[in-house]
């Protein structure tokens, strides 16, 4: 514990003179006889600055999480500290989403009073926002061509270089993949878990097939065939889980991000979350999904804000505005593979029972 080394003054500690002297509305700077200072520009600046401060806190926690996952193995005690930090990021995200309510007290007409003064500046140039995206696992290469142009083209050279070089460091998504690959779940001594799991799936799909046939008395032949065809699609989705080639194809077409081994081990964690040793790994995966979902919610809220303020006008950074932001919300997902694992979940009653020695074997550090 640190000891007090001298009297501290509140305003000095928090650097308040600097902080509170950093709101400089352009409409004040350029005020003349016709156009005075716009009252709501102060709100616009304060809200953006508060966002940037919270981005700073997110990065602070994210950096600590990345450091933990960069180790050759992650002791359980450190995993709980990762969960605590992920939970904090979630709380901050809730504030980030809520702050749009405050900004929306500014009407579109009031925004129009000073909007032109901002061109060509834009949230596009928020380096911290991009840093969060990259550190989580979104690279410029993942973006559609037109978005990539905007992403890089609107930044100063030094910011662009900084972000480009950041992309070569391992992201949380990459480190999660390596960590998941390390957990030795796929083959346990003489117990081939995945063979047992496949048997359960075959049983479930067989039951589904029987159910369709049993309930088809009142269905036309076409309706029955549609249901059977849908069942075939489900079967082939399950098969793709174990088919290395199919998995590679999904990665190449950017429909999957994590390796097959990582996906199978993540699925094991989700299926056996009730085993006490898997409780923390399960919390890690859940928190990552929550963070992904919160960012997506933020993006949709921000897209709606842009539509409310601008309608179909283009943004100050030159994008198509609302349309661009909505597309970014749909496409820029990081932990999407974890969400899609729900496809492969089965009821607890159909889970293969783990032999006693396998349960004991689960007691290890990864
Ligand atoms: C009146 C309020 C706002 C409007 C009308 C607005 C509008 C827009 C538009 C149209 C874009 C797309 C780029 C462009 O063409 O400029 C954009 C991007 C962005 N804005 Fe805002 N924005 C507002 C407030 C905010 C606030 C408070 C933040 C918080 C930091 C923010 C952060 C961002 C970020 C990070 C991007 C880049 C998003 C991406 O590329 O996925 N914006 N904004």
Description of the molecule:
The protein has 366 residues and is mostly helical. The chain has one domain: Methane Monooxygenase Hydroxylase, Chain G, domain 1 (Up-down Bundle), CATH 1.20.58. It has helices at residues 10-13, 16-20, 26-29, 41-69, 76-103, 108-115, 127-136, 145-153, 157-166, 172-182, 193-214, 221-242, 244-252, 260-271, 279-310, 322-331, 336-340, 356-361. The mean pLDDT is 92. Residues 47-48, 51, 103, 111, 122-124, 126, 129, 302, 305-306, 309-310, 315-319, 321, 324-325, 328 line the site of protoporphyrin IX containing FE.
Summarize the structure.
It contains 18 helices and no strands. By secondary structure, it is an all-alpha fold.
Range of helix content: 55-70%
CATH class: Mainly Alpha
Count of discrete alpha- or pi-helical segments spanning 4 or more residues: 18
- Runs with pLDDT <50, length 5+? none
Strand content: under 5%
Whole-number tally of structural domains? 1
Gross geometry: globular
CATH names the topology as Methane Monooxygenase Hydroxylase, Chain G, domain 1
Structural key phrases:
mainly alpha, globular, Methane Monooxygenase Hydroxylase, Chain G, domain 1, binds protoporphyrin IX containing FE, 366 residues, 64% helix
């Amino acid at each position: 514990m640190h000891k007090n080394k001298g009297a501290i003054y509140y305003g000095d500690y928090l650097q308040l003179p600097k902080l509170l002297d950093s709101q400089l509305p352009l409409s004040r700077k350029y005020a003349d006889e016709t156009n005075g200072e716009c009252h709501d520009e102060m709100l616009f600046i304060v809200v953006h600055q508060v966002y940037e401060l919270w981005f700073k806190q997110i990065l602070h926690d994210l950096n600590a999480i990345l450091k933990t996952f960069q180790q050759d193995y992650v002791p359980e005690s450190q995993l709980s500290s990762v969960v605590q930090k992920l939970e904090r990021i979630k709380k901050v995200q809730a504030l980030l989403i809520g702050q749009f309510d405050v900004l929306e007290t500014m009407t579109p007409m009031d925004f129009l009073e000073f909007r032109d003064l901002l061109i060509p500046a834009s949230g596009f140039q928020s380096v911290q926002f991009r840093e969060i995206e990259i550190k989580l696992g979104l690279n410029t290469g993942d973006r559609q061509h037109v978005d990539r142009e905007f992403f890089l083209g609107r930044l100063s050279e030094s910011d662009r270089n900084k972000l480009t070089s950041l992309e070569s460091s391992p992201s949380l998504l990459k480190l999660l993949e390596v960590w998941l690959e390390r957990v030795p779940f796929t083959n346990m001594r003489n117990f081939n878990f995945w063979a047992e799991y496949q048997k359960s799936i075959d049983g479930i799909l067989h039951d589904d097939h029987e159910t369709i046939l049993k309930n088809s008395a009142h269905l036309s032949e076409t309706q029955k065939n549609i249901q059977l065809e849908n069942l075939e699609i489900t079967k082939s989705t399950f098969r793709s889980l174990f088919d290395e080639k199919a998995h590679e194809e999904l990665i190449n077409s950017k429909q999957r991000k994590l390796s097959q081994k990582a996906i199978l081990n993540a699925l094991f964690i989700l299926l056996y979350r009730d085993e006490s040793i898997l409780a923390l790994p399960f919390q890690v995966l859940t928190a990552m999904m929550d963070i992904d979902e919160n960012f997506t919610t933020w993006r949709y809220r921000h897209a709606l804000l842009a539509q409310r303020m601008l309608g179909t006008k283009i943004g100050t950074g030159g994008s198509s505005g609302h349309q661009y932001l909505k597309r970014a919300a749909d496409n820029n997902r990081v932990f999407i593979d974890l969400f899609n694992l729900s496809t492969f979940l089965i009821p607890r009653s159909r889970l293969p029972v783990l032999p006693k020695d396998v349960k004991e074997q689960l007691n290890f550090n990864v």
